[in-house]
Amino acid sequence: MGLGRASAMIAAGTLTSRITGLLRTVVLISAIGALSEAGDAFATANMLPNSIYQVISAGVLTGVIVPQVVRATAQKDSGHAFLAKLLTLGFVLVGGVTVVAFLCAPLLVSLFSSAGYSPEQHALATQFAYWCIPQLFFYGMFALLGEILNARRIFAPYAWAPIMNNIVSIAGFLVFMMLFGSDLTQVSLWNPMMVMVLGGTATLGIVAQTVVLMFFWRRAGIPLRLDFRWRGMGLGQMRTLATWTLLTTLIGQLVGIVQTQTLSVASGDFPSVFASQNAWLVYMVPYSMIILAIGTPYFTRISEHAAAKRDVELRGDIAQSIRILGLFVIVATAAVAAAAVPASRVFSNGADEAVLIAPVLLAFLVSLLPMAVLFIVQRTFYAYGDARTPFIFTVVQASLVLIFTIVVAFTVPLEWRAAAVALVQACSGIVQTVLATILLRRKIGPLGLASTWRALARFVLMAIPAGAAGYGAFLLSGGADGWMLQDKIWGALGAVLIAAVCGAVYLLLLFVFRVPELRVAIDTVRNRRA
Predict the structure, then answer these.
(1) CA dist., res. 109 & res. 104, Å (int)
(2) Cβ atoms within 10 A of the Cβ of 269, count?
(3) What residues form the membrane-spanning segments (predicted)?
(4) What are phi and psi for residue 366, nearest 5 degrees?
(5) Is residue 219 part of a domain?
(6) Does any domain span residue 455?
(7) Range of 499's domain?
(8) 363 contacts 422 by C-beta, under 8 angstroms
């Protein structure tokens, strides 16, 4: 499958998934509130499997599995024997981690929330955790199956399967509100049956998306069987790679603990854990639609070039992928920034809450472009079988986050704490990206990115007036007192309108100044440069 077709397929699936995911969050907020003690308790519990999954999918599986599967595909059986062993190993390891996490649920909740939660709120979060932690097993198997399919150039199922999760969750949350009501923000209103329905619904959605992916796995002609004969499958090399990614995982968890502890003290009054997660969800829309959709096929091709020692083609892929990503990511940053308040209104129950949450979203956006560059650079290390170097620049990033988050905890007022924590994470990510790029150059030689940096600078200059035009549309609508903040639906429509204005102005400027990357992007979408 060509890069253009693969990217379009992933983008379409991701767009549908993100839209339904946004609807899922809107329904959930209607049930438990945006700035509430109950909402933060659920968010903390649901974050436990999510945070581990993010590291598994982005680090251990992407970094270790994809290059190994690409190499195994060249075997006589197309790697089917290796995949059966790999699937069995993942089943055992992820299952074991899930059991341990379930048994340690009270401890995990304490680690993430003890600073700011009352005993009643902590107890509610623990009850939710028992229902949410089993998601970890299904998240892990979903990521394992999906990354193997990606490595074999079967991209669509992994991008489309999460839609089933959102559909199941939306239906379950609506049933919850029919049974128990809405806006249940106070901890005292909750009982075990309510916890079971809400937490069980969240987990059932993850089960559903994993089952869907297994169906596509079988249709792809890959045997789905268990094989415990692990000798000879290259566990030594994989163990070395996994050791570094495991250390990266532990660092990520430590960072998450400190961040959540810092945010939890604002629970109930100001943006806290749940509000920060919702802002991150909006941030992930352009990240997923652009960076994952375009970057994932490039990573597979980079892995193929690395395995074949085609370094010239690999460097060309790095430069081209960063330019194409930048072309779209930069205008997306401008559009989401201009629409920050209306977009936040979608995930709040009032205009005042939207105004409080918007700075959190703006802070996250600072790192969107650097994260696009990091996506390519980090995965190039993985393509060469190097997980040690990503560990090094991740340690630097995590150390900065830890130090400055602690500073935030002691210096920043509660109403600005979530935004400050997000800004610390974003700025640390910028440092991480710069360091990672320098280390990659030292590993494989000059990257030839001078023209790429100039292209990104041109995109930024064109995105500034585009973003200003979008924000002007928000001001013309009445600003904070206008129609865009009157309701969730109006907020969504307003955000779409602002994004459309930004996109139109940006596209016009690209055509006027005849930016060459625009033609490359169009050709890629048309699959001419596959």
Answers:
(1) 9
(2) 13
(3) 21-39, 51-70, 82-108, 128-146, 158-181, 193-217, 238-260, 280-300, 321-343, 355-377, 389-412, 418-439, 459-477, 489-513
(4) -55, -30
(5) yes
(6) yes
(7) 3-525
(8) yes
Say what the pLDDT of residue 216 is.
76
DSSP 363-424: HHHTTHHHHHHHHHHHHHHHHTT--HHHHHHHHHHHHHHHHHHHHHHHHS-HHHHHHHHHHH
| pLDDT (tens digit per residue) in 226-267 | 777 766 655 555 566 566 666 666 677 778 788 888 888 888
**CA angle (337, 340, 343) in 5-degree steps:** 135
The residue ranking higher by pLDDT, 101 or 499, is: 499
Q: In Å, how far are 89, 94, 135, 137, 456 from 140, measured between CA atoms?
A: 12, 6, 8, 5, 35
Task: Give the rounded distance of the alpha carbon of 396 from its chain centre.
Answer: 21
Rg over CA atoms, the chain: 22
SS3 assignment for 469-513: HHHHHHHHCCHHHCHHHCCHHHHHHHHHHHHHHHHHHHHHHHHHC
Q: Which pair of structure tokens corresponds to residue 95?
A: 């299952």
Q: Which two tokens stand for residue 119?
A: 């005993």
Alpha helices by DSSP H, listed for 133-264, are 135-151, 156-160, 162-180, 192-219, 235-264
CA separation for the pair 282, 405 (Å, rounded): 22
- Integer Cα distance of 64 and 299 in angstroms: 13
How far is 419 from 356, CA to CA, in rounded Å?
A: 9
> Is residue 209 one of the residues assigned to a domain?
yes
Start-to-end CA span in the chain (Å) = 8
Phi-psi region of 153 (alpha: psi -120 to 50; beta: other; left: phi over 0): left
Q: Are 329 and 502 in contact (CB under 8 A)?
A: no
Q: Is residue 530 part of a domain?
A: no
- Name the band, by pLDDT with cuts 50, 70 and 90, for residue 529: very low
Among 127, 101, 114, 120, smallest CA distance to 48 is for 101
pLDDT for 383-424, tens place per residue? 887 878 888 888 899 899 999 999 999 999 989 999 999 999
Question: Do 510 and 504 touch, CB atoms closer than 8 A?
Answer: no
Give, in degrees to the nearest 5, the angle at Cα 173 between 170 and 175: 110
Overall pTM > 0.85? no
Q: Based on the structure, what is the number of domains in the chain?
A: 1
Record the tokens describing residue 363, joined without a space.
Answer: 């802070």
**Residue 451 CB neighbour total at 10 angstroms:** 11
Is 59 a residue whose pLDDT tops 60? Answer: no
Q: What is the DSSP letter of 514?
A: T
Distance CA 217, CA 220 (A): 5
Handedness of CA 454, 458, 461, 467 (dihedral sign): negative
The 10 Å Cβ neighbour count of residue 97 is 15
- What does the alpha-carbon distance between residue 315 and residue 488 come to, in Å, rounded to a whole number? 45
CA distance 457 to 450: 11
Q: Pick the closest to residue 522 from 324, 316, 329, 375 (CA basis).
A: 324
Q: Which residues contact 416 (CB under 8 A, 6 or more apart)?
A: 359
